[in-house]
Design goal:
Radius of gyration: 18 Å
Number of helices: 9
Strand order of the largest sheet: 1-2
Strand content: under 5%
Low-confidence stretches: none
Number of strands: 2
Shape: globular
């Protein structure tokens, strides 16, 4: 048990150091890291969906060449990508909360879901720090700090006082109390973050945090549903004790289309 906890801790520290280090070092190291993450996540999705990787990898590479290598602030390009991801996200939420138990078996439908659920969100993450023209790594750092804060406080509050299940059919351990606690503490922490990262106001950061906490939690449930249908515990095993890249980034990739839209509105309206 001690060895397992130690492995998990070391793996988590390496992941956080790699993510923060690459993001803060330069825009090039940031892009390299996330395009690697994107390919790994696509491979893991194909494993869950029982898809061959050839066509998905070609689509992933094409997407990165078209939208990731040269990041622009072209509003129509961004809105198009954003709309496509939101369309698939809404579809996944309908399936999550709906009573239908339809299993997607058609390869073309799986590929469309892959594009909207994995590939475009990763492209949006890569584009996010460039929305203000100059590379701003702190919007990425802020996003991940909020995701980690939400996960941490949802766990602490849920463990301490959680009694009512949030979505027992998909994730038996999550509680309503934990969810509310995660949202409240993340939003409160965002106010403090706004005092240091002043490119957004504290109030704007609080809106940012609410989107991250709510849709991040939904993203975790969506991926849990995909894993349940695939009959696996983890999406992969690249991170000892944590599973795969999809397991670590499921909250972020689901929240980022909503976050990207919010951030665009702030930049273009203000």
């Amino acid at each position: 048990m001690m060895s397992e906890s130690l492995t998990r801790s070391i793996s988590g520290i390496v992941y956080i150091a790699l993510l923060l280090g690459a993001t803060l070092l330069s825009s090039i190291s940031f892009k390299i890291l996330f395009v690697v993450f994107m390919f790994i996540a696509v491979h893991e999705y194909c494993r869950l969906a029982k898809l061959k990787t050839t066509v998905p990898f070609i689509i992933t590479l094409t997407g990165f060449v078209l939208f990731g290598i040269v990041t622009t602030s072209a509003i129509y390009e961004n809105l198009l990508l954003n709309a496509a991801a939101l369309f698939v996200s809404v579809g996944l939420l309908v399936r999550l909360f709906g009573k239908s138990r339809i299993v997607v078996s058609d390869d073309n439908t799986k590929i469309v879901q892959l594009i909207g659920y994995v590939i475009i969100p990763f492209l949006l993450i890569i584009k996010l720090p460039f929305l203000g023209a100059d590379y701003n790594p702190y919007v990425i750092v802020g996003m991940f700090v909020m995701i980690w804060a939400n996960d941490t406080f949802a766990y602490i509050v849920g463990k301490s006082i959680g009694k009512n299940k949030l979505f027992e059919r998909i994730s038996p351990k999550k509680t309503i109390e934990g969810f509310i606690g995660g949202v409240v503490f993340t939003v409160a922490g965002a106010y403090i973050l706004g005092l240091y990262f002043t490119f957004l106001t504290p109030l704007q950061w609080m809106g940012f945090a609410a989107i991250v906490a709510v849709f991040g939690t939904l993203g975790d449930l969506v991926e849990s549903q995909l894993k349940r249908k695939a009959g696996v515990k983890d999406s992969g095993n690249i991170m000892p004790g944590h599973g795969g890249i999809l397991d670590r980034l499921d909250s972020v990739i689901f929240a980022v289309p909503f976050l990207f839209l919010y951030y665009q509105i702030i930049l273009y309206v203000s």
